[in-house]
């Protein structure tokens, strides 16, 4: 007995990786998208922090620079200019007091204007510094004391000896007052020097801090780039390379190689999907290999069976028929020689024996014809069904003429197949339509052909005795008869042979149970790929409007 194929393993639906319990599970953890979002967010936050530090360092450097350039140095220079203006005043008054000549007072007048200019420039510069304001006020106060007590009285005195006398009289007072001015300006400039030195130190510290901050920013950016590169290498590129290598190894034929899962959750999930696919393919290949071995065993059994069938066919065509011919011949010889000595019953028995031998011989021939379908007659070529049908009608001309049958048909196409087998198909269908005719009317048979996509759909319709729908499948079983051999002769193998021929040619055949006024068999045959023709039922006239019948049984 031929072994059956192994049961195919069930498909794995939605496999993501089997957990300890056997159920499918998704790997938990961070996905590539989450890692990238987190990494980018942290990088942006760090860069924003570093940018803030850089802005702060630049702002501090700018502030220190402004303090030094816009305040400290201009204040010191203006303080020196104020001192110079006071010295010019003292020089002019002293020269006027010594000579009494009015021309010597010009430096005093110019010094007063320069003093006012210097004071106007210095006040905004020292407005933020209480000590500097106090130093300026002290210098101006002492300058006012000197001017009130010495400079103005001398400048107001007439030129000549009067001016000299006033200057001589107040010389000590003027000298003391101007020394106080010198001391105040010295203190003021000393304090401004200290302020400028502090500003310079702040600027140097700010510059150093700025350089350190930007060096740290550069180092952190380099470190961040290295971390991002290493993170991508370990978290993305390396798992992808491993997955690609495993997939290529499996694709190259190593179906037993396990695809490893590593990296983020989504890459692990992808690897598990690929592994599930590999496992499925491996299972399918194992099943296919098992099935192939089973099919090889079946093919070997079929070859042995075909050899045995060939041997049976040889025995049936030679060894079995020879004894049957001898039985029939000797029974007939016995009947002729001893006819006057045998009674009626003996002659009847001899007739039974001869009839049985003849029917056995017919059955053997039918079995041989059935076994040859697809085995002996297997010469596929282009077959013109129009010619095949005409040849079949010529072979059945006697039965057609005796029954008064009328056969009409549509234009028939050209198909690919075995001409001998297709001729047997027409002969069985048409002969059964003639044989199983209704007793009260002559047979009317119609053959139809319609193109249906890649198939030709044929129908053989008659107006005979018909077949009950309950026997729609039984009539295609070998040796199945719906009538006794006395009513309709035959071996019950014709329709079984029709089904075998049609299926061998890649088509199907069935009884049209919807047809009631007789019998209608429908079968299909593949159409030629480049066949442009199509059949039209109206191309051939119908023999009779109500159609025809198909056999309830087939003849041998």
Draw up the topology in text:
Blueprint: H1 32-99, H2 106-125, H3 130-156, H4 161-169, H5 171-251, H6 265-337, H7 344-372, E1 381-384, H8 385-395, H9 397-403, E2 406-409, E3 414-417, H10 419-435, E4 444-452, E5 455-462, H11 494-504, E6 509-511, E7 519-526
Parallel strand pairs: 2-4
Antiparallel strand pairs: 1-3, 4-5, 5-7, 6-7
**Number of domain modules:** 3
Measured distance between first and last alpha carbons: 30 Å
* Helix-strand string: HHHHHHHEHHEEHEEHEE
Give the radius of gyration. 64 Å
Give start-end ranges of low-pLDDT stretches: 1-24, 534-556
Shape: rod-shaped
Q: Share of helix among residues? A: 55-70%
Q: Return the average pLDDT rounded to an integer.
A: 77
Largest sheet: 5 strands, mixed
Determine the number of helices (DSSP H or I, runs of at least 4 residues).
Answer: 11
Secondary-structure-derived class = alpha+beta
| Strands, total number | 7
Q: Note the beta-strand portion.
A: 5-15%
Q: Order of strands across the biggest sheet?
A: 2-4-5-7-6
Features:
single chain, 556 residues, alpha+beta, Heat Shock Protein 90, 3 domains, five-stranded mixed β-sheet, two-stranded antiparallel ribbon, 11 helices, 7% strand, disordered N terminus, disordered C terminus
């Amino acid at each position: 007995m031929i072994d059956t194929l192994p049961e195919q393993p069930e498909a794995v639906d939605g496999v993501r990786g089997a957990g300890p319990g056997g159920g499918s599970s998704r790997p938990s953890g961070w996905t590539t998208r989450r890692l990238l979002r987190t990494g980018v967010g942290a990088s942006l936050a760090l860069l924003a922090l570093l940018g803030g530090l850089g802005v702060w360092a630049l702002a501090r450097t700018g502030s220190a620079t402004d303090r030094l350039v816009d305040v400290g140095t201009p204040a010191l220079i203006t303080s020196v200019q104020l001192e110079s203006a006071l010295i010019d005043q003292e020089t002019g008054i002293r020269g006027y007091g010594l000579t009494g000549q009015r021309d010597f007072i010009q430096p005093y007048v110019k010094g007063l204007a320069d003093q006012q200019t210097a004071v106007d420039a210095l006040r905004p510069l020292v407005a933020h510094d209480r000590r500097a304001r106090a130093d300026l006020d002290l210098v101006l106060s002492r300058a006012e004391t000197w001017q009130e007590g010495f400079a103005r009285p001398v400048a107001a005195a007439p030129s000549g000896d009067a001016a000299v006398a006033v200057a001589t009289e107040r010389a000590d007072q003027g000298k003391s007052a101007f020394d106080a001015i010198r001391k105040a300006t010295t203190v003021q400039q000393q304090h401004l020097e200290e302020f400028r030195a502090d500003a310079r130190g702040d600027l140097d510290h700010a510059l150093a801090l700025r350089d350190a901050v930007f060096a740290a920013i550069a180092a952190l950016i380099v470190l961040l780039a290295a971390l991002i590169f290493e993170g991508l290498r370990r978290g993305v590129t390396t798992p992808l390379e491993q997955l690609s290598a495993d997939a290529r190894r499996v694709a190259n034929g190593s179906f037993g190689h396990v695809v490893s899962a590593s990296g983020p959750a989504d890459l692990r999930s992808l690897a598990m999907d690929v592994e599930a696919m590999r496992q499925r393919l491996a299972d399918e290949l194992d099943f296919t290999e098992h099935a192939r071995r089973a099919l090889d065993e079946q093919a070997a059994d079929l070859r042995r069976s075909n050899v045995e069938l060939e041997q049976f066919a040889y025995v049936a065509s030679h060894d079995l028929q020879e004894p049957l011919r001898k039985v029939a011949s000797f029974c007939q010889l016995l009947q002729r020689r001893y006819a006057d000595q045998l009674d009626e019953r003996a002659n009847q028995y001899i007739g039974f024996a001869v009839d049985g031998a003849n029917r056995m011989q017919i059955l053997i021939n039918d079995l041989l014809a059935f076994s040859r379908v697809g085995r002996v007659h297997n010469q596929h070529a282009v077959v013109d069904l129009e010619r095949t049908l005409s040849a079949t009608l010529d072979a059945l001309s006697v039965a057609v003429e005796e029954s008064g049958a009328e056969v009409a048909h549509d234009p028939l196409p050209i198909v690919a197949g075995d001409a001998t087998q297709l001729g047997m198909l027409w002969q069985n269908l048409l002969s059964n339509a003639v044989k199983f005719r209704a007793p009260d009317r002559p047979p009317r048979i119609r053959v139809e052909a319609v193109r249906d996509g890649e198939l030709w759909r044929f129908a053989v319709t008659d107006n005979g005795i018909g077949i009950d729908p309950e026997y729609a499948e039984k009539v295609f079983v070998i040796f199945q008869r719906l009538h006794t051999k006395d009513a309709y002769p035959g071996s019950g193998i014709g329709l079984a042979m029709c089904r075998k021929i049609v299926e061998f040619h890649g088509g199907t055949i069935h009884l049209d149970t919807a047809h009631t006024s007789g019998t209608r068999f429908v079968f299909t045959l593949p159409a030629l790929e480049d066949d442009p023709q199509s059949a039209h039922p109206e191309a051939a006239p119908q023999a009779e409007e109500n159609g025809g019948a198909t056999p309830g049984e087939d003849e041998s």
